[in-house]
Amino acid sequence: DRPSSSSPPLTDMAERIGYITRVQSFSACHRLHSPDLSDEENKKVYGKCNNPNGHGHNYKVEVTVRGKIDAETGMVMNLTDLKRCIEDVIMTPLDHKNLDKDVPYFSTVVSTTENLAVYIWDHMVREVPEGLLYEIKIHETDKNIVVYRGE
Ligand SMILES: Nc1nc2c(c(=O)[nH]1)N=C([C@H](O)[C@H](O)COP(=O)(O)OP(=O)(O)OP(=O)(O)O)CN2
Ligand SMILES: [Zn+2]
């Protein structure tokens, strides 16, 4: 039977799932050079991005978490906490750095945006509450965008 207009609104007991995203930009330089290829092959594969002195990007990263909207707080997680995770995982180790020279991970892994997304995922997944990390999306340029979801 339909509740009368005077009855309190039905509390929605269904589990509601939300996706929240925080965006952060950072600047870094790199050179696309695979240790598994010869210098000639590197030049062939990466072209101008293999120039020895490297180049820079203003990367824009979108970190998305997915989870239940908490009935009491109304939050999937506090975006202030996500901001701190981004500071620790992205800004401190990557901002204004040379990815290949300042980040040990990229001393043996070519610093493509795909690999950068994997790096950020692997470190972010340890920082956010278990099971919540959904997606890392990186805009390397206005035209180049990479998505990684932990697969
Ligand atoms: N699959 C990938 N391909 C390329 C990557 C990458 O990370 N993954 N990265 C590069 C270079 O880093 C380069 O800086 C970006 O490529 P490009 O689009 O050529 O950059 P432009 O500045 O030339 O931008 P346009 O506006 O398209 O000219 C290359 N490939
Ligand atoms: Zn580049």
TrEMBL record:
The active site is at C49, H96, E140. Involved in the biosynthesis of tetrahydrobiopterin, an essential cofactor of aromatic amino acid hydroxylases. Catalyzes the transformation of 7,8-dihydroneopterin triphosphate into 6-pyruvoyl tetrahydropterin. Pathway: Cofactor biosynthesis; tetrahydrobiopterin biosynthesis; tetrahydrobiopterin from 7,8-dihydroneopterin triphosphate: step 1/3. Its cofactor is Zn(2+). It comes from the Eukaryota. The lineage of its organism: Eukaryota, Metazoa, Chordata, Craniata, Vertebrata. Pfam families: PTPS. InterPro entries: 6-PTP_synth/QueD (IPR007115), 6-PTP_synth/QueD_sf (IPR038418), PTPS_Cys_AS (IPR022470), PTPS_His_AS (IPR022469). It is an enzyme of class 4 (lyase). Belongs to the PTPS family. It comes from Periophthalmus magnuspinnatus. PROSITE patterns: PTPS_1, PTPS_2. Keywords: Lyase, Metal-binding, Tetrahydrobiopterin biosynthesis, Zinc. One of its GO terms (biological process) is tetrahydrobiopterin biosynthetic process. GO terms for molecular function: 6-pyruvoyltetrahydropterin synthase activity; metal ion binding. The keyword Zinc applies. Its EC number is 4.2.3.12. Binds 1 zinc ion per subunit. Zn(2+) binds at H30, H55, H57. One of its GO terms (cellular component) is mitochondrion. This is 6-pyruvoyl tetrahydrobiopterin synthase.
